Amino acid sequence: MRLLQNIHNFDVATFQRCHNLKSYEKLVQISRWVSKTADGPLYIIAAIPMAIYGYLEFLPWVFAAFILERSSYFILKNFFRRNRPPQAIPDFESVIIPSDRFSFPSGHTSAAFLMAVLMSSLYPELYYLLLPWACTVGVSRVMLGVHFPTDILAGATLGTSCGIIVLNLRVIV
């Protein structure tokens, strides 16, 4: 229990340092845009290049990966039931209204890392664009005040893991 309290204290301190940066207002503006790039509908649009460039057989695997990731995300979110920063930090208000009640893990970050893993397997040359994008999505969620840093780490781990699992299953099958 002490370990969890220490992690929470670290999370709150790191979170508050991010929100006390001199460039905070500018970072919030950028974070709004970056966060929107990881909204669900854009992942559907990402399927268009796959279809155009002949990766139709890969689309069911992408769908399976998102089912695995979203299911795991939902189970973890409802198991841990970690309060978001506005509920955990007195007098703090987030910049945006989150889509659900709990913060652990970050769903935006998880989905972004899943997409980065899957798309990098098809387009390896995009890896150096997709990985920083996924990391930036995670940071944006902290800057918008809806997640703690460990929520981001958990989301990145979840998305990456689900992507790797599905890619390995694809090779076996």
UniProtKB/TrEMBL annotation:
It is found in: Cell membrane. The keyword Hydrolase applies. Signal peptide: none annotated. Gene3D superfamilies: Phosphatidic acid phosphatase type 2/haloperoxidase. Keywords: Cell membrane, Hydrolase, Membrane, Transmembrane, Transmembrane helix. Its EC number is 3.6.1.27. It catalyses: di-trans,octa-cis-undecaprenyl diphosphate + H2O = di-trans,octa-cis-undecaprenyl phosphate + phosphate + H(+). InterPro entries: Acid_Pase_classA_bac, PAP2/HPO, PAP2/HPO_sf. The chain crosses the membrane at residues 42-68, 152-172. This is undecaprenyl-diphosphate phosphatase.
